[in-house]
Design goal:
Strand order of the largest sheet: 1-2-3-4
Number of strands: 4
Largest sheet: 4 strands, mixed
Shape: globular
Radius of gyration: 24 Å
CATH class: Mainly Alpha
Distance between the termini: 49 Å
Strand content: under 5%
CATH topology: Growth Hormone, Chain: A
Number of domains: 1
Amino acid sequence: MESISLETVAPLAPKIPQIAISEPTVVPTSTPSPAVLKKNAIRISLRGSTVDGVFAAMFSMTTTGILLSNFLVELNASPVTVGMLSSIPMLVNLLQPLGAYLSECATSRFRYSLFTNATARLLWLFLAIGIAALSFGYINSQQLIVLTLVIVLLSHMLAGLGNASWLSWMAVLVPRQLRGRYFGLRNSAASLTNLIYVPLVGMAVSKWPGGTLQGYGVLVLFGILSGLMSIGCQYFMVDVNPKTQHTSVLGSFVKNSISGDTQNSRHTIDTQLETTEKNTQSTPDLSAIKGILNNSNFLMFLFYFSFRMLACNLSTPYFNFYMLDTMHLDVSLVTVYGSLQAGANLLMLIVWGKLSDKIGNHPILILTGILLIVIPLFWLGIDVSFCSIWLWLPFLHMLAGGTWAGVDLCSNNMQLGIAPVKQQSIYFAMTAAVGGASGALGTTMGGLIAQNPSLGGLQGLFAISFVFRLAALIPLFFVQEPRRNSFTQMIQTLWRFRKRIVQN
């Protein structure tokens, strides 16, 4: 029986002495080398994760964003209700520390994801039933609004329990030097899906013979199916045992086995802990909390991230509401704007991903942060004129798509770099929890401001958001990125990058 080292497969993983490769039941004519076997395992995992992202994007775009906002507008929901809808996914991030702790008690990242995410997506069946009940007159629109909010709350609570575990899972599978490139590719695949999916289903909902509400009910069923297919793709990813991941960092020597399933191409990293190691293992969350409090750089990043979430969510959830409710634009046209935003996101993810690998994430976050500041100002001049509908709105959505591509990608990469490998999921969960609470506070404040005529309504909200976004950029200058290039190195890299683009 041959043995290989996990360190060369996933540099982000804790150092584990050896992984044994169990012999397959059917002996092939030519046995692949351990290096080929481990590379194939990671390659299959990353491909599975990419396809997972595509189907997950289809589910997410069905149950959030423009389509769900239009559904609530059709039910005559108020701006406060729309604010609650946007704040729930962020507020339930407070559960992520609990989810991180529960995931560390599990023995399989895949099975934990199956329990949390599959259950969360199946809950949306009740919304399809509710829409059918509304059509037959068993419930009214207000009751359906309440049902929608309850489903959003419960499904995002379950998903929130699994987010930190998934991010920690990916931190093991994706090598550090390929993070920007791989996540750029994965997010690009999701953006391409958005580019194609949202306009098509938006048109289908708008033209559905039974009305937009009934059309959305059928779309929800399709979204649930896509969400379950997303979970199925994770079956082909290398399954990590959280106990292995953390006890190895503490210096424990563990016996590991990676079993190959020739029929399913599934590879599982499993751990057999010694009895004495089980008895002496400490609770991971307590030491992580002490580490967070002593990590000034992570605390500064946490302050920046949470402040940015509050500032951006003051206005971002209400851009679609402004177009659908105030400007009375058709949902099919709004989804076209969304596809333009996804297209810009798709193109810029590739650029930001390669650039972040060369110059780091910090400079890109500063640049995109400046662009985020000016976006609400552009919305102040939007009306129902021809110029606004066919020039300004497409431009704003493309600007937002390209900007958020850099913000999301580089924020995740910087978080992966700042958070120590030991008990990494606790750090991720803390960021999501604090940022989610701040974002929820922002959407709630935004809904109250938008509904208050004395503060200027939605136009006043956009102006206030500009001020908050400007202030939110300041803490970023005090965040130190690990292995950050000097200013001279950054300029030289940018110059070479520019020459390469011009030559191509």
